[in-house]
Amino acid sequence: MSAQNITDKPATPSRRDFLRVASLGIAVPVATAALAACKSEEAPKPAAAAAPAAGPHADSNHSGGTTAAHPRTPAEIRAAADEMDKHHEAGIKSFPAKTEGKGNQILQPRVENGVKVFEITASKLQWEIEPGKLVEAFAYNGQVPGPQIRVTEGDRVRVIIKNQLEQSTAVHFHGVITPNDQDGVPFITQPPIKPGDTYTYEFTAKNAGSHMYHSHHNAAEQVGKGLLGAFLILPRRPRAIERADVDYVMVINDGSHGYTLNGKSFPATEPIVCKLGQRVRVRFMNEGMMIHPMHLHGMHMTVIDKDGYPQPMPWKCDTLNVAPGERWDVMIEADNPGVWAFHCHILPHAETPNGMFGMVTALIVEK
Ligand SMILES: [Cu+2]
Fold first, then answer.
1. How far does residue 237's CA lie from ligand 1's centre (Å)?
2. Residue 124: in which H helix or E strand, if any?
């Protein structure tokens, strides 16, 4: 199970501690109220879980904290729990942890004769997933996810790709309706872009919505290592329901970098910050190979778009399955102040006995 590749990592936290996040300067009383609600989720684990250095199989090595030779005393159980909690707390306290490199930054085009031109270079580099953990990445313009491309419905768009990798590649504009020869699939619509070569895509951005761009060549490796990004086509006439104060793209991935949100694993993930009363749009995009049910604490989400297409009737949820290749747009009315956990609810993607990791971030609603 690939989860284990990324569970041998230090400290991360429990939901309860998460909500404290004193370092974020959020009012403690808010978090306190939330604690009660979360408490039942924290049923104490068998003592095994208290062994902080243990890996994901820790529980199977123990049997409820007792052995025939030595039943543990209440003091020993307490000490073990304290030890475990210490690791959870350390992870939370370090959130959002600083790392080198930030992906998903908006790329400004240059305009040539009315065409929006984006230049993108694919290259190999080391990427810091969480503090001190470097992985080999394939990146567009040195970022994982690659730079965010934003155009408007009807724009003429040119994307120039320079391949500095040691393997061929190609770019597919996922969800974007293009002429066939701009679809980016080697041997179906174009030759592969060889190492050292440059290739140009050009099309008119017809269908508004939250789309993606990614490699479509040796993609399990190339997309897993980071050749992906958001491609937004903004509508000419936005609907009232999509008016947002904060517009946040959350790219989900689960390739060789482990479980990541925008190229980072908790506690290096980025919180979404807004003010009480604001409207937050989150655009979930799954570039991975597994379904991730994304769960927001404290508020519901109103689903407005699927793959860029407006829902016939917006609908509410607090947990939303995001399958590979899917994009889901949700609106959140930030009416409940505090620091709210926001995470994948397949728990091995989000938490170990040592605390939270991977697909965890927070929605911070400031008063
Ligand atoms: Cu998940």
1. 34
2. strand 115-130
Distance 192 CA to ligand 1 centre (A): 32
Number of H helices, E strands in the chain: 4, 22
- Give the pLDDT of the chain (367 residues) as one tens digit per residue: 333 333 334 334 444 444 444 344 333 333 333 333 333 333 333 333 333 333 333 333 344 445 566 889 999 999 999 999 999 999 999 999 999 999 999 999 999 999 999 999 999 999 999 999 999 999 999 999 999 999 999 999 999 999 999 999 999 999 999 999 999 999 999 999 999 999 999 999 999 999 999 999 999 999 999 999 999 999 999 999 999 999 999 999 999 999 999 999 999 999 999 999 999 999 999 999 999 999 999 999 999 999 999 999 999 999 999 999 999 999 999 999 999 999 999 999 999 999 999 999 999 999 9
d(CA 364, CA 248): 13
- Tell me, in angstroms, the distance from the centre of ligand 1 to residue 343's CA: 8
Which residue segment(s) compose the domain that 128 sits in?
Answer: 110-234
Residues 224 and 274 grouped into a single domain? no
- 54 Cα: distance to centroid of ligand 1 (angstroms): 22
Report the separation in Å between the CA atom of 352 and the middle of ligand 1, taken as the mean of its atom positions. 13
Ligand 1 center–CA 359 separation, angstroms: 7
Task: State which amino acid sits at residue 192.
Answer: P
Same domain (yes/no): 275, 338: yes
* CATH for 304: 2.60.40.420
Domain count, the chain: 2
